[in-house]
Amino acid sequence: MYFRISARKLLTRITSVIIVSGFIGYLFGHTFLVVSAVSIGLLAWHYNHLFKLINWLWQGKSISPPQAKGIWGRIYDGLYRRIRKQRLKQKQLNERIRKFRDGAEALPDAALVLSTELTILWGNKKASQLLGVRWPSDVGQRIDNLIRFPEFAKYVNSGNYDSPCLIISPINNELQLELRMMAYGSDQILLLARDISKIQRLEEMRRDFVANVSHELKTPLTVVRGYVEMVQSSGASLEPHWQKAFTTIETQVSRMDRLVEQLLVLSRIENNVEDDNHQQVDLSRLILTIVEDVQWLNQDKNHTINDHISPEIKINGNEHELKSACMNLISNAIAYTPAGGVIDVILCNDGNKIRFSVKDNGPGIKPEHVNRLTERFFRVDMSRSRNTGGSGLGLAIVKHVLNHHNAELAIESEWHKGSEFIIYFTATISE
């Protein structure tokens, strides 16, 4: 029940009491004495309930307030309602916190809540198993004091948490962890650690398999190519159907050889380490060299290749990988653009980035295929790829090269109007 009392109503009650007590005192000839006695009694009554309230708030063990009538009964009831409502809210909040903690404990990943000073506020059981962080005993400790890896310290101090950090588990050298940090709220950071040991082992097995198979295929392909060339150059007259058969064998062997070579290139790029990228590459000279080298591919198509290369653009990277990526983009434009097309090769500064683009006026790519172009062996048109000798690995190689160089690939294509492949390098520019 809502109770409201106004100052006017309170003043009216006090005035009424004084008037009544004054009238009674007047009847007995002791007006002042009666008014004073009533005032003192009223004051004592209020102070008595005030002491009861203080005692209940500070020393009382029961949630139930003292019994009282009148305005003090209203006060006790209001406080009791407020306390019950607060306790209900506290209970609901505790229940929500418990559910969130249970959910965090059920996570397969280690979860730590950190302050902006990187001190530990909370952690789940998985954090103890993967990172060796125990809660609540490690509360208040800095996370970089418990996880002492140079790569993790660099990751934490950088303040850039867009990409994950890979480390070995501090308590188990056989486990490889992927750490991600993200800020939330006003002053908290969430750290997630995932065990990727199985994924890494499977990835290593896949890379080794591809590399080994590719190496093993080179020998028989070389033998087959050698025997075909020997037969064709022997000068012996062959029947037309045999001549056609050997020509087909040579074509397919060449195609297989290109595929194996691209698999080897992709394998080398995947196994490459970032330490190999600390050399300065003259990107302007490299692109000009590629444009000159691909002219032999353009002999049959007779495309118009326009190069707009800004001079003296240099970046830090691996020259062989960069050449492979740029070569793939330009050769793809030549291969998939109809004869007599126009291809624009552009290299320029774009703000704090370097922009390299290859634009053609070919058939373009449908929107539903654009996001899958960098997948291995993905082909938009199988028949067209077969005719052009495409393997479906060119853009996969480009993607891996760009990952090594902290670069981005953007694809803009319009069906029947052409495509543009753009690389944004974030490396330091030197002019």
Structure notes:
With 431 residues, the protein is an alpha+beta fold. The protein has 4 domains: 7-96; 107-195, PAS domain (Beta-Lactamase); 205-271, Helix Hairpins, CATH 1.10.287.130; 279-431, 2-Layer Sandwich (Heat Shock Protein 90). Helix content is 52%, strand content 18%. The chain is built from 13 helices and 12 strands. The strands form 3 sheets. A 5-stranded antiparallel sheet has the order 2-1-5-4-3, with helices on both faces. Helix 8 (240-270) runs parallel beside helix 13 (394-404), helix 9 (283-293) crosses helix 10 (319-336) and helix 10 (319-336) runs antiparallel to helix 13. The chain is elongated and about 150 Å long. The protein starts with 6 loop residues before the first helix and ends in a 6-residue tail after the last strand. The mean pLDDT is 82.
How do you describe this structure in short?
The chain has about 425 residues and is of the alpha+beta class. It has 13 helices and twelve strands.
CATH superfamily of the largest domain: Histidine kinase-like ATPase, C-terminal domain
Which CATH class of the largest domain?
Alpha Beta
How far apart lie the N and C ends?
79 Å
Number of domains: 4
User: Stretches where pLDDT falls below 50 for ≥5 residues?
Assistant: none
* Rg from Cα: 40 Å
Averaging pLDDT over every residue, what do you get? 82
**What portion of the residues fall into strands of 2 or more residues?**
15-25%
Strand count, sense and barrel status of the largest sheet are:
5 strands, antiparallel
